[in-house]
Amino acid sequence: DQQVKQNSPSLSVQEGRISILNCDYTNSMFDYFLWYKKYPAEGPTFLISISSIKDKNEDGRFTVFLNKSAKHLSLHIVPSQPGDSAVYFCAASPLYSGGGADGLTFGKGTHLIIQP
Amino acid sequence: NAGVTQTPKFQVLKTGQSMTLQCAQDMNHNSMYWYRQDPGMGLRLIYYSASEGTTDKGEVPNGYNVSRLNKREFSLRLESAAPSQTSVYFCASSGGTGGSPLHFGNGTRLTVT
To answer: B96, A100 in Cβ contact below 8 A?
Structure first.
């Protein structure tokens, strides 16, 4: 049973426009959500996170929105740049369960392609 | 600033051979993890170590063993490699405090023929 779902394997967006990546989850115990970005031949890097006490977190061009009632989160990138082309993983865990990532569940990823 | 270093970057094994994947971090993190990534799949946790001297199974531990050699190093061993273990393996570490994100190495691409 896939607890974290990224239903779009790929997404193509024109440079300068907004990129919206979506993620749905099924486990109501999840309280903490993260986005990771991965370039080919590199490891994932942490991008942004949000806890369930918030519905929005912003960091520069990146904003994550959380809708707890719908069990849905989205990552907005504005404006999109060529360097944003990468695979984006959504991840979720119970909040602060000892602090470890052993409870972290990843989605399958969305490949974002920014077209010039 | 090296972060998390994995060796080797690439490896080809024959079925039944053994090998150890090495991982070291220089961020003084308590927790370390081994993940595998397969095409069309997310990252799946193999084993983790919440602190020096402890290790625990993750989601997909069968066929693997781990050693937390010291605070810096966490190795993953395949005793008898199988084609199903063909994958990209990532080591990661975290501070272990509430909500601290994972820092990943650049991965080891393993092919078992």
So the answer is: yes
Helical (H) or strand (E) element with A39: none
Q: Within the 72-111 window of chain A, which residues sit less than 8 Å (CB to CB) from chain B?
A: 89, 95-96, 98-102, 104-109
CB contact at 8 A, A81 and A65: no
| CB contact set of A40 (below 8 Å; sequence gap of 6+) | none
How many CB pairs lie under 8 A apart between chains A and B?
A: 72
Over residues B5-20, mean pLDDT = 97
Encode pLDDT of B25-38 as tens digits: 999 999 999 999 99
CA distances (Å), B88 to each of A29, A99, B41, in order? 29, 25, 11
